[in-house]
Amino acid sequence: MAALNLSRLIAAAADAIADNAEALTALDQAIGDGDHGLNMKRGFEVVRGEAEAFSAKPLPDALKAIGTKLVMTVGGASGPLFGTLFMALGKEISADPDRTNLTTAFGKAIDAVAARGKSQAGQKTMLDVLQPVHEALLQGKTAAEIADVADRAAEATIPMKALRGRASFLGDRSIGHMDAGARSTALLVRAVVETIGERA
Ligand code: ADP
Ligand code: MG
């Protein structure tokens, strides 16, 4: 892979969140407290504002710094979890990753999120998108296919009953709504793989 353009990745991710902040909030209003869109937008706009400084660092350090920043700025349950995802990715990724390294690092980062959240796929959370995306990476799927896998995985949280996070307080009433964190994860995945895929 040619060197990743981190500035472009940050801009694409922040745009995806900003463009969908209201929709994310609406999802969280249905089965949570309605702050997810604002939480994510706040964090990703701070990261966007410091994109130049992040991009000047080697990729592993940049991802760790972005993760730390997301923990500090996103808040809610999702801030520490997305923060963990990026920090763990930074710990495992190489400075110029090939697909194999990226896939392995992503898998370990997902394990770190699951450990932090005491959660696993099937509980109607961001993990229900992260895990199928990891499988798609392992299967050698293209950027466009991976983005579609992520969208479908977010949709697939609709019939699930939430077993983690605020939505789990609703029990069966959480059924029939998409998980907000799964949706934001799918938006981030599409933004990142499409940006990387453009130069493949
Ligand atoms: P809060 O629930 O504190 O208001 P957010 O609304 O920002 O935080 O984020 C909620 C999202 O976080 C959920 O939609 C879900 O995807 C994710 N989430 C919550 N708890 C967990 C957990 N234990 N493991 C994985 N993801 C979780
Ligand atoms: Mg919330």
- Could you list the spans in which at least 5 consecutive residues all have pLDDT below 50? none
Proportion of residues in extended strands? under 5%
What hetero molecules are bound to the protein chains?
A: adenosine-5'-diphosphate, magnesium ion
State the CATH class: Mainly Alpha
What's the CATH topology name?
Serine Threonine Protein Phosphatase 5, Tetratricopeptide repeat
Class by alpha and beta content = mainly alpha
Helix-strand string: HHHHHHHHHH
Radius of gyration: 16 Å
- Kindly state the number of beta strands: 0
For CATH, the homologous superfamily is named as DhaL domain
Number of H/I helices? 10
Let me know the average pLDDT. 96
Q: Largest beta sheet, briefly?
A: none
Global morphology: globular
Specify the CATH architecture.
Answer: Alpha Horseshoe
Tell me the domain tally. 1
What level of helicity do the residues show? 55-70%
Distance between the termini: 7 Å
